[in-house]
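Input chain follows. Return structure tokens only.
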Amino acid sequence: MQVTMASTQGVGAANEDTVHVSPTGVVVLDGLSAPKDLPMGCVHGTPWFVRQLGTTLINLIGDNGVSLREALRSAITDVNDLHRDTCDLDQEAVPASTVVMIRERGNALDYLVLSDNVLVLDLGADGVRTIVDKRVEEVAADEMRAALQGPTGTPEHAARVSQLVTVQRRLRNKPGGYWVAATDPAAADEAITGSVELARVQQAALLTDGASRLVDSFGALTWEELLTLLRTEGPTALIARTREAELADPVGERWPRFKRSDDATAAYVKIGQPVPLSSAAQRLERGRRTGSSWGAGERSDGHTATLAPAPRKVAAALGIKVGSEVIRRTRVYRDRHGIVAHSTSWIPQEFAQAAPELVRGERLQGGTSLDVIARATGRRAVKRDDETAARIATPEDVELLELAPGSSEAILVLTARFLDRDGRALEYGVDLGGPGRTRVETSEVDL
């Protein structure tokens, strides 16, 4: 599990969000703001409460024998024990927090969501799934509509927000109301929980409502676009863009809200380890050994085949004239994190008749294109010339690797020319590695 995160304070006196990370888990909390004119039964305040709750939770979910719901129940009880002698916990005016957390457990990803934090899961071919508990929006409807009336930042608006919080406190953690983590451990039983097969999850985002508002409040991004922004630029960029939108509408005229800017926390998670970039030689060896060029955790799609004029570099590699017709085969290798590589094979046109499957836009069966050529003609690759280079992705690279337009990612470019025993070129391959992909070579050394 690889996690990047960011958290920034909104217009309040302190950041009431918190995020906690372990090797197998992530916890994000959003403390419920308490207007200054309303009573508070805890002398420590909301920031203290969310820090204690988050620290306790991240430790408890490290035990796979404890369900996330049990962990939340125990964490609430444990935090109660920390301040029950100093604070009045038997009233409505106590610190409270929303909760979203995930945990890797064997081959599963467990999740828990309580109140309006958002969990976004990228399930690859199954699309993007969002999990959020919106019961808080279903209560105190009249007071909520009044509190959303602008302009924000005025005494009149602050009074309407205080009235909303007063009514919400009476409905908090009660049947027919809504549920948050406060002093009642039974709130854990009301959380949304579940598990997803780990192999299905490519990436995830855990967001407080201050970090999700570009999608669910402002409509400026889709969930897919939000994940792309997190992957390519990171959580800090997401929050910065959110602040830009808020500053463009400071009084909530375009996007009505309870405060000009809220505390915002985002954790972006890549699940498991990305598949390393395979060389053409590795794929050839793997194909001969297993019948598939895929590495562990890989799949391929986007298979195309056509006859095309040879570009200058291709022509030089194959020993033909520029513009001569050649077979061009392409495919995209992916794992749960996205594109591993965009791969193109350039093959002399003479093999189209002997091995017609080379010009069909389908995945080859029984190995790579070099294996197909060997079976059809008896000509085998006995020598290869490899080259590895790094460059900033060109506009064409960006399109082929499905990156955000204008991206300036560094990528690896692997080329390989395969020759038969007579020195004649059989294939010239070009692999564009996805951003962040590494090359791994293993060899034996005589000691």
